[in-house]
Amino acid sequence: MSGPVQEAGKRGAALGRPVAVYAGRYRDRVEGAGLPEGCEVLGEWDVLPHRLSGVLRRAGALVLLDLLSFPYEAMSRGRWDVPVAAVLPQEHDEEFLVSVLEKPLFERLGFFDLVATADDALWEALGVRYGWAACQRIRPASEDPAGVAREVCGVLLSEEGAELPSGRGSYEAREYWRRRGERFAREAPHRAICSAAHGRAFNKAIHGVQAAALEPQLAAVRSARAEDLPLEVLEVGCGVGRWAASLGRLGARYTGLDVSEAMVGAAGENFPWARFEVLEDDLEIPFEDESFDLAFTVTVLHHNPTEIKRRLLSEMWRVVRPGGRLAFLEDFVGVRRSDDETVYPMSVSAFVELLVGVSGGEATLEHFESVKYPHDDFHRGGLMVVSRLGVPRRW
Description:
By secondary structure, the chain is an alpha/beta fold. The protein has 13 helices and 13 strands. Strand 1, helix 2 and strand 2 form a beta-alpha-beta unit.
């Protein structure tokens, strides 16, 4: 094996969860072809329904090298939790691939999955159609199935070895997130925006829980607005823009803010149709009063002390129109145990008190639900949605 592939294999072996490579018709060409250590080659027999559950339980990721023979009907909803890397066949065009793979595969691929193709035109057409981000693409140099498999596995395994930025000694939220953004925004974006200490599968599971809670609320806001009026949405702490695709599917005009220039730059590349801006040190949101119908955060506020929470809430309140909504998917349970920790948990009652203060009592609770992540023994998260009362000052 070459140096980078060998190093990726060593890291993958240390993770303890192999990358499952469904080779299908190409199995004879892929087996023994020097895949990194930590990869398991599968044939058509290995993914029969009664075997597939076992394969996915032990896999850290699933590479689909032969898209046209994989049994998608055996993939129940929970089985899609494993990150998928889909290798697009070179011999078929967009029309054929959409007709065959739209429902079983393409519509299921999200931000934490990957798509491998060397065809720029095909990537652009499918990416626009399904809202795929630029960071999901792998551009293989090889045309041979074994070579493509090596490249894709190398990407999956190498990204797990990215060094973590340390907050030890004196955690300061804005500086920490800037450094984290610079480290991960391009190298491992899935770790930049969920849990930096864990890999793609763990972060995909976190995102899945968040999406199940947040996306119905986003859709409810969209449905309450006239169809001929655009829905203006602002996300504070957007990272590399993972929620832009969800809002794009709803026909919303999405704007993202983040303190990390690196993340904002990567977000603009991921979703060029959306707008992304840097949130400067004064934390003043660079938009006029009453500019948005919805402003939201996802696991952002609990990384900041109370005074910064208050400032961000005040600014979000200012830029949301009366009749609009604010949504917060944050951790409300926990205790800050040391100065090194990157979280400042706040109880629901304390958060409500803070929100009532910045809103002058004009916030009305629309929805609240607790959120339990797969790795937690208790519900530490919650989604709170409030509406802004009052009469708009401008139309």
